[in-house]
Amino acid sequence: MASRASIGGHPIHPMIIPFPIGLLVFSFIADLIFLWRGNPIWKDYVAFYTMLGGIIGGAAAAIPGLIDWATLTDRAAVKVANWHARVNIFTLVIFIASFYLRTNSGAAWIPNLPMLPFFLSIVGLIGLTIAGWLGGQLVFAHGVAVDVKGSAPESPEAHHHVRAA
Question: The pTM is what?
């Protein structure tokens, strides 16, 4: 079923999601580099701002995802999409908590648990992985946001003009 939220027949949600995923994963990698090297720029700036970008990007990707979800009619696809949405919301909340605990205001809440934002990022990455798998199920098993009208394979006669060198 083709996506209602599309540009030129291409679904927007799958076009946007690589950015927040990449930013959130890189935020975790920056945390690991901080733990390995000890340079606070990795934790205080790189991880902090890539996480912020990932959170904003995730919220932006949710809009076309919500439009696609609202147009689903297949019960099995709706069930998977509901879990995809739940896990994504949970994951976004976890990353928001991790981000907030990295601010001065949030850090004041957990003075004895300085590693909590890092551990929340691990939980967030697990959620991101599960949500991504569920999103793959929607596309590959249920055909959500896949326009099958124009995807018929071409006949061999369509290639008769191609010559080998």
Answer: 0.85
